[in-house]
Amino acid sequence: MFDFDVVAGETVREILSDQRAEVLGIVSQAYRSHEAGESINPDSYFLRFPEKPDSRIIALPAYLGADVQLAGIKWIASFPKNTQVGKPRASAVLILNDYETGYPIACLEAANISAARTAASAAVAATTLRPGGFEGTRIAIVGGGVIARNICDYLHAAGATTDAYLVHDLHEESGQALVDHLRTTQQRPASFTPDLGTALEAETVVFATTALEPYVTTPFKPGQLVLNISLRDLAPEVVLAADNVLDDVDHCLKANTSPHLAEQLTGSRDFVTGTLAGVLNGEVTVSEERPVIFSPFGLGVLDLAVGAYVLQQAREAGSAIAVPNFFGETRRW
User: Fold this and answer.
1) Whether residue 215 is found in the same domain as residue 273
2) pLDDT in the model for residue 278
């Protein structure tokens, strides 16, 4: 009961890089469990800084029942200016709590967990919302950072085999680095384009940027699939011209995300087609006559599901670091 482990980032990274297929299944099942009411996923809490409007630290508390039976919280910082000095934008920790006693049982480095669950959710959405596959199509990636790299890795693991990748980034060096990664790891044609419009013509478009306000104002075409991972790139008119699949409706329609702006513009949620879990369960269908946009706000239950798996794997491998006497008192009297 009073054991407490730390799982370091290198261990997390090694476990996740070897188990992408398992993570895809874990994320898919977590969505289904959340849809079935087997979770508690309160609002995320944002710590913002007046002198750093682009930076924030977010707390994501959650509980996931089903086979996980853990509560916990992810504390994740996003400081975009880190990238200007070659540091990752995001850093995070995940605390897991035992459901029976409430005691924390582990602290895991969670930037890798957060990136993996985000990328896996994008890949699950891609293969679910384009059931005909990706042969004969192109995938465009807008934004060339860590999340984009992970999304590409998980798309590959999910079997989303495209004919070619297009990468667009305002920072050409980052975009070219992703191109080189794709060529090396997937042996697929990949090229950098400085023209956003060219990227937006691809059959599948993935947004993984740090944009704070919409800049894409032209609606997509029927048959296009848009993975709106960074959430604030699309003008509300673009959202309203598509079928919209969310991870959780209440969570996504807040904080001035693109879907939230669409709700504010229309005063209605009628533009929401349904949730990804609804599509997975066969309860929601999307039209072939409109573009489809997937917008995930990011659920803490996904972090719990992936974190619980990482902790189990680390303990079994002996790579979790036990902290003796972590709790100062283990008896009431």
Assistant:
1) yes
2) 98
